[in-house]
Amino acid sequence: xxxxxxxxxxxxxxxxxxxxxxxxxxxxxxxxxxxxxxxxxxxxxxxxxxxxxxxxxxxxxxxxxxxxxxxxxxxxxxxxxxxxxxxxxxxxxxxxxxxxxxxxxxxxxxxxxxxxxxxxxxxxxxxxxxxxxxxxxxxxxxxxxxxxxxxxxxxxxxxxxxxxxxxxxxxxxxxxxxxxxxxxxxxxxxxxxxxxxxxxxxxxxxxxxxxxxxxxxxxxxxxxxxxxxxxxxxxxxxxxxxxxxxxxxxxx
Length: 252
Ligand code: NAP
Known about the structure:
This protein is of the alpha/beta class and 252 residues long. 32% of the residues lie in helices and 22% in strands. Helix 2 crosses helix 3. The longest helix is centred in the C-terminal third of the chain and has 16 residues, at 234-249. The mean pLDDT is 95. NADP nicotinamide-adenine-dinucleotide phosphate binds at residues 6-9, 30-32, 34, 49-52, 55-56, 72-73, 75-79, 82, 135, 196. Residues 6-9, 30-32, 34, 49-52, 55-56, 72-73, 75-79, 82, 135, 196 line the site of NADP nicotinamide-adenine-dinucleotide phosphate (NAP).
């Protein structure tokens, strides 16, 4: 049974690892191709967009995909919408893996922002020392509030032309440790941390460190979740796949 996994997340990698060597299933992991040196699993992988809904539906048909798992990032809304539409067009069962969002704990000083421009505005009129952990694609709103000084962290170096004027960057890939995050926030005298509400354990230690140091957090809310069946983690996705595989074998 051929299975397409839309990836780019810890959960997708965990599903890929669990399926490596599974004799029942022939999985393919799909990556958008944003990261130049991705950590690849021991299953076949493809890179790059499909060409919208029609392209993805055509891929599902042409490769006789029997099940589609959307394990993309909670903020990758376009590909998730495409997956819902393409799976319906091609008549392929779809499961979305969506890890739970973070919620504030006692002691947290969070401001919720609807999107990245709102997050930039939430930093206020007074110059602040800001830690941006939002990836490299959405820095533009912060160039419009150039009186803050920024520390930018992303997996790969951002395009220098997109950086706010007073900024420096560091490249790092999670998981991160709380004591390292604590040290980083302290060393740089960080007053505000800006993050997407990605959820998950790998990048949560920055929130614990911010709580401990009284650093304010601007938390960017998620886009609306895609329609259809959703599970919170890779283990639940494997259970769903077991069920689909059993049904598929019987030719139902
Ligand atoms: P997006 O805005 O939802 O997708 C834009 C386009 O990129 C899609 O329409 C699709 O192109 C292509 N695409 C996205 N994910 C793909 C995948 N797994 N395989 C093949 N094509 C894909 O997505 P994004 O926010 O740019 O995220 C891109 C990738 O980075 C995803 O795999 C996501 O899991 C990962 N990621 C995103 C974030 C984030 O904050 N957005 C954070 C960490 C990881 P076509 O329409 O041509 O098919």
